[in-house]
Each structure stands twice: as structure tokens, then as C-alpha cells.
Amino acid sequence: MFTSFLFHLRAEGIPVGTGEWLSFLEALRRGLATSLTELYPLGRALLCRTEADFDRYDLAFAAAFEGAALSDELRSQLAQWLERRVDPQGERSEPELADEELWRAFLERLAEQREEHNGGDRWIGTGGTSPFGHGGRGARGIRVGGSAGGRAAVSVALERRWESYRNDRTLNVRDLEVALRTLRKLVREGRHELDLDGTIRKTCDNAGEIEIVEQRARRNQVHLVLLMDAGGSMAPHHESVSRLFSAAERTKIFKSFTAYSFHNCVYGWLYRDIEQLDRVRAEEVLSGLTPHHRLIFVGDASMAPYELFNAFSWPGQGTGMTGLDWLQRFRARCPASVWINPDPLRYWDHPTVRAIEATFPMFELTVSGLHQAVQKLRAPV
Amino acid sequence: MSLGSQGSCLGRPSLPSRSLLASFSSGEVTVWRQVGGASRRGPTRGCRLYLSLPSLLHDELVGDGRIQGVRLQRGGFEALLNQAVLDEHAPSLYPCEQSWRLATRFAPVSIRWIQDMDRRGRPLSRQVPLLSLRPAALRQLSEQWIASIEGWRGGPAPALRPYPAPPTLLARLVGRNP
After folding, report:
1. Is A325 close to B99, i.e. CB distance below 8 A?
2. pLDDT digits over B33-74, tens only?
3. CA–CA separation, A39 vs A45, rounded Å?
């Protein structure tokens, strides 16, 4: 049972290492969790490295233990048996059962038991030294009834209260802002301001006589250019791309922020407003790029191959260059550029996506994807 | 329909002209492929489609390979041509060589012009296209566009006629910017 839990955890993408798993088994061996309700927080504390893993842990926990939960009928019957608490009796015993054996024994006992049984050392009930039930003196076992219900932890897991902590989910505006705020290249060129550290240092050097030190405020040198695919297959992603746009516009930390739209790929024109056909020549945008510009392309990169590989143009856009030529030119002009793809990774096995991925570093439109993209944009070029 | 791809002297083509010749009816185009056996051109992950049967026989077939005639819907054939990227760098089509390299690396279909031959294997003064399909294009072809497949058991090769493709497409296929 617990081995399958490990597989569920890994299947959800939680990087559970051998050391963590052995710690978890050791905790079980010491009897730190005697019910699913106790197992849930124990496992989460030992097996999750960050709160970003909590939601995946919930999913894995529910998948691993939902089948082990008791049926309503069985639970109510057990609850009746366990209502009457019996004083512990008998000597404390140490059942020599491994964790998986314990669960197997519990399920077998559950199948065999036909009536209420309290005290003693075998059946599920209260008191006694049986490892199953509650209120007894068993050193370790599986708690049933009392304050812990067999299904409670699974229910908690299924609530998925930690979903918003995941770092692989689609972004909200706040997440985006936080990620974008790290995209900075600060240079001292603003107005003069007090340098507190410098003032203290100089004052100390002056034996306490105050000497005010000033320095220029730091300003972000980054010009951000957002180029967004619009329409067609991007329609399902409209909301998430809009959020990215809103976040970039709201952040206000960039020296300048410009946004353009295109359809599928950049050809001759970029649109400031694609619905109003307010457009500017791509050549003009290209010539305005400097080493301080950072380009973020947003698009699913999926299109008919001829749109990217052959000299294709929408009416009025003919330039004789392929879409790939245009992208190469943007990349050459502005090496600090990335492509954010709102499609999940499993859809990236497409010729045009692969070709664009070979041109620009491509990242998913998720919290971790955007953080990686910003790291890439911050790296010296 | 024939387009000289290279320079000419006194109005005559000095090198083989490139001709989009095919055996076709009002609704279908027949292309040829080798199945099984070794190939002079080496193994491929996808599929090579010849428009000229003698070219296939003399260019690729060795040993116990079998020949299949694949009848494609014309729409599918033209879709293949539309997706095709020329496998030689044509600066007028791809000003940036890097773009062309990427295109040939990822495009689902590439086109190579090969010497056409007669039934006895003698070279003709023209080049015909050889289409190489990657697995994705082959899958699309098999799911949507194949009308029928028949094994070829010898006999005369069907006559080739100029295929009426749009001039811009033809120009692009032979390496000219339309």
C-alpha cells in the first residue's frame, strides 16, 4: 500500500527521494501515524519540500488511499462498535508487523470480523492491545473511530486547499507581476537620495561627526516588448494571455513597455490593436530594438507548416520572407528574447513548435515557466 | 510545365530543367514508393515518394524491395507540395540560411530535384521532384488523402504530364521567389 503511495507521489511529480521516503517509513514504524488522518499531515511534512507540492500531494494521497477508505456502511457499523469505550487492559504489546503487513492484516481482520469486539488483542475495537481500533494500548496500529475517521484525511486531500500554491498551474495576474518584477537591470541614474549605509560609514570614519552621503536612485533599464499571437488556435488562451498583458502593463517597473499582436507568426506587420487594424511595420519595430530590450513572444507556435517554413503572407503583408526568417531576425537583433507557450508541454511535438523552440528558448505559461523565462532574460547575452 | 532552374545560354537551358510532371487524373495523382528491401538512398524514418516511376527504379530500388503505386487525392498532393521545403538553399527564397536549415530540419515535407530517367535508366534532360515525408506528414497522408495503394508488378510506367500547379507554388518549388 505504501509503495503504491510512493508511485502516486512520483507520478504527480513530487520529487520524493530515498532519504525522505525512508524517513516516512521510519515515522510509520515508530507509530507516529496510526490512521489516515494522522498519516496525511505526517506524509506532507516529510515528503513535500515546498508548499508548491501540497496540491500534488493531496492528489497522490487521495489516489493512493481512497480505495483504502471504508465504505459508509462499514464505517457506521464500526462507529457503533467503537462508541462504547472500554478501559485499556492487558499488557502493552509490540506487534511485529511491517507497515504494509499491518494494512493487509487490518483489511483481512475487517473482512473476518462479524460483531462488535472490545478489549483483547486481535479484533477491531476499543481498548485492549489490538493494533486496530482506538482507545487501546497497542504501541502502533491503525486507528479506527475515536477522533480519527478512516476517510477524513482523504476528504481533506480531495478538498485541494493548496491548489493555489502550485507552481505549474496557469498564472493569475499577481503571479505574473511577481515573476516580471524580477526582470530588472538597475542602473544609478535617478534623482539623488540618501545613502544610509554610506552615511553611517562616513560618519563613523569621521569619529561621529555626521557626514551625509547621497547617491543616485537606481532605475530599471529594461524595455519590455510583448509580442502576442492573437486569434485562431490562441482563442482558448485569450484569458491567460490577457492576464500576462495586464500584469506587464501594471508592473510599471520597466523603462518602457510595448505590446504588439500578430497572427500565428510575425510577417510584415505587427498590430498595436489587431481589431482596429492599427499596425506598424515589423521592420520598424526591429530597427527600434536595443540591447536593453527584452522580447517575450507569447503564442502556441502551432500553425500550418507552410506559414512558418515558406514565404507566406497574409494579403497586404507580402515581404518575400518566411515566418522563420522574421523570427530569426528578431532573435538576432535581440538575443534576450523568449517564447512563452500557453499550450501544455505534451502538445509541443509539432514541426512548427519544434522549429520555433529551436529559435527561441520556449517555456510554458505557468508560474515556474515564467520564472525560468525571466531568468533567461536576465542572463547576460 | 517546365521551369529552367539554372542559367541559360542562347535561350537554351544549359542544365536540366525542373519539371513538375506527374501521372494524374481529374481527382487523383499517382506517386510511387519502395516498400521493404534496401535502398540506394539509405533508410528513412518517414517515406520517399517519387513522381516518376523510372526514377524510383533506377535511383532507389535494390534487391528485393517492392514498389507500390499510391493514388492520392489531388488536394492531398497539393497540400504536400505546399508544405514542402526545398532541400537546397535558395537565397532568393530563404535570405537567411539559418532559417532554411531550421525549415529543412523541422518541415514535414522536403523536396529534392533528381535526374529523371527513361525506362532503360538513361538520364533525361530534366529533373523531377522527390518528396520526403516525415512521420507526421505520412500519418496525415495515410489518414486523409490516400485513395488507394496497389503493388506494381512490372509493365510500362504511366505517362507523365505537366501538373497544373499555381505558378507561385511552382516557382517556389524550383527555388525561385514568386
Report:
1. yes
2. 988 777 777 777 788 999 998 888 887 776 777 889 999 999
3. 10
Q: Find the radius of gyration of the CA atoms of chain A.
A: 31
Strand-pair partners of A215: A193
Q: Bigger pLDDT: A107 or B28?
A: B28
CATH class of A173-182+221-378: alpha beta
Contacts of B177 in chain A (CB under 8 A): 311, 320
Domain that holds residue B23: 8-174
Q: Which of A306, A325, A329 is the closest to B94 by Cβ?
A: A325
Domains in chain B: how many in total? 1
CB contact under 8 A, B83 and A324: no
Does B103 map to a domain? Answer: yes
Residue B107: name the closest of A310, A105, A273 by CA. Answer: A310
Question: Residue written as cell 532573435?
Answer: A331
Can you tell me the distance from the alpha carbon of A337 to that of A226, in angstroms, rounded to the nearest whole number?
Answer: 10
With a cut of 60, say whether residue A39 has pLDDT above it.
yes
Whole-angstrom Cα distance, residue A355 to residue A116?
68
What does the block give as the cell for B105? 530540419
Residue B3 lies in a domain: no
pLDDT digits (tens, 9 = 90+) for A317-346: 556 788 888 999 999 999 989 999 999 888
In a domain, B170, yes or no: yes
A95, exposed or middle or buried, with CB in 10 Å at 0-12, 13-18, 19+? Answer: middle
